[in-house]
Amino acid sequence: MIRICDVKKYHGIPAEELKRMQDAHVELTRITYDHKPIHRGYTDKYLTVDFSRNSIEITDIDPKVKEVFTGGKGYCLRYLWDEVKPSTRWDSPENAITMSPGPLCGVTQYAGTGKTLLCSISPLTDTPFDTNVGGYFGPLLKFSGFDGLTLKGTAKEDVILVIDGNKNTISIETAPLEHEDAHVLGEELTYMYADDENDRKNVAVVCAGSAAKYSNIGMINFTFYDPNRGVVRLKQAGRGGLGRVFRHKNIKALVCKFSGVKADLNDPYDISIINQVGKKYHKEIHDLDNLQNGMRKVGTANILEVMDAYDILPTNNFKFGSHPGIDRFRSTVFIEKYLTQGAADGCWYGCSMACAKAADHFKLKTGPYKGQAVCIDGPEYENGAGLGPNCGIDDPEAILELNFYCDTYGLDTISFGTMTAFIMECYEAGILNKEITGGLELNFGNWEAALEMMHQIARNEGFGQIAGQGVHKMKKIFVEQYGADAQFLEDIGMEQKGLEYSEYNSKESLAQKGGYGLTNKGPQHDEAWLIFMDQVNNQIPTFEDKAEALYYFPMFRTWFGLLGLCKLPWNDIVPANNSETDEPAKVPEHVQNYFDIYYGITGKHLDTPGMLRMSEKVYQFQRIFNIRMGKGLRKNDAIPYRSSGPVTEEEYLSRQERYDGQLVDLVGFTKEQVAAMSLQEKMAETRKYREAEYEKLIDAVYPRRGWNLNGVPTIERVKDLGIDFPEVLEVIEPLQ
Amino acid sequence: MQLNDRPYLHWRQGMSIQDVIDERNFIYPKLVVKLNGKLIRKEDYAATLVAEEDDLKIHHLLAGG
């Protein structure tokens, strides 16, 4: 086991090298600004930067916007709506990236309070896409005086935006010599803008990576400086391809510098209640984490072997739910051999959950940094599952190296994993071959080929140019250019709305099919993660039960994104007496903690109905935004059959006892009838049943959410929520 | 015996709650276990036997990231 006290500090960057790079900067514009103090969690100031015009504008946030949209994701969506048109696509000049930390962001007394929300029109989905990220940029942006930031226009050359929250200056500068890859660029800019070693923790960098400008799955990294290791750490605004938008605007990086973080910077109404709740929570982590998920040891990767045991771990492009090589990559392997233990691995101050684990001085085997010993953030569960078993890979060092290169190149690990799994299945099905892939033997399990394909994406060459487009666009290419069967690709291509699925096998949970399919942005599990409640616990057996869960959890979870909070501290540890409560799945004591912190910051009381209503305003607004962009209807909520049932004979036969039994228990055939059926007949009946169940689920969920059966929010619901703005009604009135 | 409101076909005389957990390979650590509506603590899983007519609920507190 590796302990932090035994980890050597990383080498920095020579001062002369930094000076050479900084000397090459040309300042394009600079402003000074009045730094308005935060009041009860808000600055009420918004920063807009137009890179086409090198303009920087600071405006007051309309009190009505604050009242309706709260902050975070709400602000991101509202400001993005005002920038774009229905015809706007990801690369349109008017497309913007909006960011907002939220009113509770920056609290230092509780865990998971440093989240930033981002939105943009996605290159994958053509709709407004939200993603959240840790790291220091969001909190430091707010402490520098801003509740939100819009990045729009396109710079003529690579530029950086530098916000100094102590000197109250903002500048746009060219940055021609800095490297592109995030682990290098993040470090260069941190060292460059810090006054000295102690000041590095006060510098936060936002950057993508060399692959992001070529790939629709490009993501954006947010840094924080880790003084124990002497290295810059990376957190990811991973999903939706926002890194590609960022680099298309020729934004190389954002830098925010602010020193003086302390517990009362949010100007809380009652700091004592926040202190009390924080102390109670930290004690829970201290006393219970070892007995529960072990987040402080391995982060979210603790569930790798759990998902495998319950047949939910995606394996070989979601064909199966468990991998025979699980013992090679279960969480204990990472704890014992790779992830440094005992480190304060929070991605914002005060996060005692400390789940941002890292492998230190890992020697890379491939690519441009081959032979170098690097710090790798992760793997989180999604990375481990997506880059590992879903691609048939069970080598933990391959998973770590894939994780590292995804991060530094600016590629979303989830989309890369799911897209590579899709390619591998196409390769094994004969749709692709070595001639098409340029010699890459992309069989399941070939991690070296997967890595080489990723390096090709970063170099914008070879088969990487095709792979980097994502599953949705690859399906079309494979049909048109390589003669693939379109229906087969629709069935096995694990994307919906253009977004690659995250890493859970949902075949046996109807509620989770809805948790993926009936989402605003596509199949990411952050709206509703119901597999265990449904498939294992059987707590929501009826359509009405599932519909209620698919109302409550998306609204509940949306709230975290409005306030600038991480969801993990809500339920990845629970109070010792949680099982004695009426609704253990909702972790009532932790929900009350959030109400207390909200009161402590804002001075306003909140309860569950108020929380859900706060979220629903934004949730419905996002649905209507999707409709405005030409999506967001029932037809867009259709899911690929691989997410719902067995596409191939191999899949059916692998769980034949289960599927045969369901034809009797659920569909209504007799055992004798099933015994007389051919395999193809059984597969057809299974598919017919499962697809019909999903349609029935939609029929139950839409009314619960206040939508008509085409998925359009009703005017009555919109009026009740107070989001009946003329531009909103204009979108939905023709569709009532 | 009913497990999570579904018939449990592998019940046998003398079976404990811990036996059910082991046989079902319920390896996740955060479980809420109720036998006929009564909360059973973890330290009592092995000593608590399950009768054929019992209603056993083993709920996993796992709701994703």
Structure summary:
Chain A has 736 residues and is an alpha+beta fold. In chain B, 11% of the residues lie in helices and 28% in strands.
- Which oligomerization state do the chains in this entry correspond to? heterodimer
Amount of beta strand of chain A: 5-15%
| CATH-assigned homologous superfamily of chain B | Beta-grasp domain
Radius of gyration of chain B: 11 Å
Low-confidence stretches of chain B: none
Taken together, the total number of domains of chain B comes to: 1
Order of helices and strands of chain B: EEHEEE
Q: How many H/I helical runs of chain B?
A: 1
CATH architectural group of chain B: Roll
Identify the CATH class of chain B: Alpha Beta
Please tag this protein with its features.
heterodimer, A: 736 residues, alpha+beta, Aldehyde Ferredoxin Oxidoreductase,  A, domain 1, Aldehyde Ferredoxin Oxidoreductase Protein, subunit A, domain 2, Aldehyde Ferredoxin Oxidoreductase Protein, subunit A, domain 3, 3 domains, seven-stranded mixed beta sheet, six-stranded mixed beta sheet, 31 helices, 17 strands, B: 65 residues, mainly beta, Ubiquitin-like (UB roll), five-stranded mixed beta sheet, 1 helix, 5 strands
Could you walk me through the main structural features you see in this protein, from its secondary elements to its overall organization?
Chain A is built from 31 helices and 17 strands. By secondary structure, chain A is α+β, with helices and mostly antiparallel strands. Chain A has three domains: 13-257, Aldehyde ferredoxin oxidoreductase, N-terminal domain (Aldehyde Ferredoxin Oxidoreductase,  A, domain 1, 4-Layer Sandwich), CATH 3.60.9; 271-500, Aldehyde Ferredoxin Oxidoreductase Protein, subunit A, domain 2, CATH 1.10.569; 512-573 and 607-639 and 705-735, Aldehyde Ferredoxin Oxidoreductase Protein, subunit A, domain 3. The relative contact order of chain B is 0.34. In chain B, β3 and β4 form a beta hairpin. Chain B is built from one helix and five strands; from the N terminus they run ββαβββ. With 65 residues, chain B is mostly beta strands. The A-B interface holds A 291-293, 300, 303, 305-306, 309-310, 380-382, 504, 525-526, 529-533, 536-539, 541, 553, 567-568, 571-572, 574, 578-580, 584-585, 587 and B 4-6, 25, 27-30, 32-33, 39, 57-65.
